[in-house]
TrEMBL record:
GO terms for biological process: mitochondrial respiratory chain complex IV assembly. Required for assembly of cytochrome c oxidase (complex IV). The chain crosses the membrane at residues 40-57. It comes from Caenorhabditis briggsae. This is Cytochrome c oxidase assembly factor 3. Component of 250-400 kDa complexes called cytochrome oxidase assembly intermediates or COA complexes. Keywords: Membrane, Mitochondrion, Mitochondrion inner membrane, Transmembrane, Transmembrane helix. One of its GO terms (cellular component) is mitochondrial inner membrane. The keyword Mitochondrion applies. Pfam families: Coa3_cc. It is found in: Mitochondrion membrane. The lineage of its organism: Eukaryota, Metazoa, Ecdysozoa, Nematoda, Chromadorea.
């Protein structure tokens, strides 16, 4: 474990170096938080896009009736083999 020390107890050149290091570290932390924020925004946008595409696909497929029309035509043409597909 590292021992914690008070910066004010250090000699003047080391004190200046420690304060400079703290300043650089604070800037680094700000950059990390900015990137993290941008990543969260990007994630939210992508999730929204995926959910929107999924919803639109399900909505569009639910409206399709061409398979039902084909089933009805087959039932009219071949009632013996496809009679169970006829509309009741």
């Amino acid at each position: 474990m590292l021992e914690t020390i008070d910066i004010e107890d250090l000699p003047r050149p080391q004190k200046r170096f420690a304060k400079q290091f703290e300043k650089v570290n604070q800037e680094r932390v700000k950059e990390i938080f900015a990137k993290n924020y941008k990543n969260h925004i990007s994630f939210a946008v992508l999730i929204g896009l995926v959910v929107g595409i999924y919803w639109y696909t399900m909505y569009s497929v639910k409206q399709e009736t061409f398979l039902e029309e084909i089933d009805e035509e087959m039932a009219m043409q071949n009632p013996k083999t496809h009679g169970h597909l006829a509309k009741k």
